[in-house]
Design goal:
Blueprint (H helix, E strand, L loop, with lengths): L5 H20 L7 H12 L8 H10 L2 H14 L15
Helix pairs in contact: 1-2, 1-3
Length: 93
């Protein structure tokens, strides 16, 4: 899995925050910048981080709530719990 360096993260953090703010304004107040970062690190850029800064920003800005929830749904499917009572569904909304 390619890693996002500290320098890359510090450059991209305002964009992650901007996207989280956009999602919050759409009514998804539980989505934070760290969640957006995790989406890119573990899902969207899992195999390759775009080489150029402008490509990284483009990817962040074109991400929709549906893209993020695809990741959350996939994560929920592989999350190991013995019953649905153990899943905190508030984190997904």
């Amino acid at each position: 899995m390619p890693e996002i360096s500290e320098q890359q993260y510090s450059q991209l953090e305002p964009w992650f925050k901007l996207k989280a703010t956009e999602f919050n304004q759409l009514g998804y107040e539980n989505i934070q910048a760290d969640d957006i970062y995790r989406y890119f690190k573990e899902f969207s850029w899992k195999h390759a981080v775009p080489k150029h800064y402008y490509q990284q920003i483009r990817d962040i800005m074109k991400t929709t709530v549906n893209h993020y929830f695809d990741f959350v749904a996939l994560e929920a499917q592989v999350y190991k719990v013995s019953s649905l009572d153990e899943i905190n569904f508030d984190d997904f909304l």
